[in-house]
Amino acid sequence: MTLSIAEEFVLLAHADEDGKPLVKEERVKLVLVAALMSELALRERIELDEDGGVLLLDGAPTGDAALDAVLARIGEVETTLLPRTWFARLHAEQNPAPILESLAETGALRAERRRSFGVFTSTRYPQGDPAFEQEVRARIQAGFGGAEVTPRTAAVLAVVYAARLLPQLFPGADTARADELVAGDWVGQELLAYYGGAGKGDVATTAFNTVFGDGAL
């Protein structure tokens, strides 16, 4: 079964043993916007116009609720907006829970529901069938080994890279090679520029890093 870019990212962004997220939830939400936009770009639903704005090519429903929500929001505006504007506008609307449930339904994760004090319920999503994650990792690792990667794999690597997960998931990975592999993915490039391009020490960067900073949960 082929997973979406968002599903592959969420799968990689949770620890195998206990299902805990490897990065802050706010960062997951931010990167999810790019993952969904990358999926739409690969499906030729959106593209960049000559001014660098996100142009809607086809707003017909895809059947995927998360993708359709992004399509609808893009279709609401009368002009094209920069990708970073969409990252800022849409990240608060993202919810990884339905994607986690979808991964549990496919068997890639297991949904473990726990009750505390007989009242509060929480759910963790540890690894299910390891073949799903192994396949994603193998595609990315092959790229680091010198192989060409598909646009889909490049897009997954770009969001993993932007989420600052490379050191955890691919220890020793060559970031220069990562830059080469994601160079053709415009959504990933825009996310990397948005997330890592601001100068250090200014008020905007300090506020940004407070919300999306590098520390894991």
Automatic annotation (TrEMBL):
GO MF annotation terms: phosphatidylinositol-4-phosphate binding
Name of one Pfam family that matches: GPP34
Primary subcellular site in the record, as a coarse category: Golgi
Domain of life per record: Bacteria
Species annotation: Nonomuraea endophytica
Subcellular location: Golgi apparatus membrane
Protein name in UniProt: GPP34 family phosphoprotein
Membrane topology: Peripheral membrane protein
Annotated keywords: Golgi apparatus, Lipid-binding, Membrane
GO CC terms: cytoplasm; endomembrane system
Keyword Cell cycle: no
